[in-house]
Design brief:
mainly alpha, 3 helices
Amino acid sequence: MTAITPSQILLLYVWFPLAVVIAILLLIARYYQNFSGDPTHYRLYLVPLVLFGAGSVRYASIDRVAGDPLGDVLTAAAGLLLIILSLRLYHLMTAGRSR
């Protein structure tokens, strides 16, 4: 049986709050879609959640926090997709609003 290292604990400590934030964004997008009728594609928020999870598992399996090409690509893809989805939701929810 192998011991859990501090970097593995850190990865789990960071991933769970991130998963909660992504889940909240998913619920906001679903709520907005249900009441406005505009398609928000809220199910796509599961993709960054899975990609961040896969990246975290990859980093934990090699006992590193960064520097692994596969883990870096998974995390970068998840971050980019989350930014795109969040900006799309922001523009969808604030379209036509005056400043």
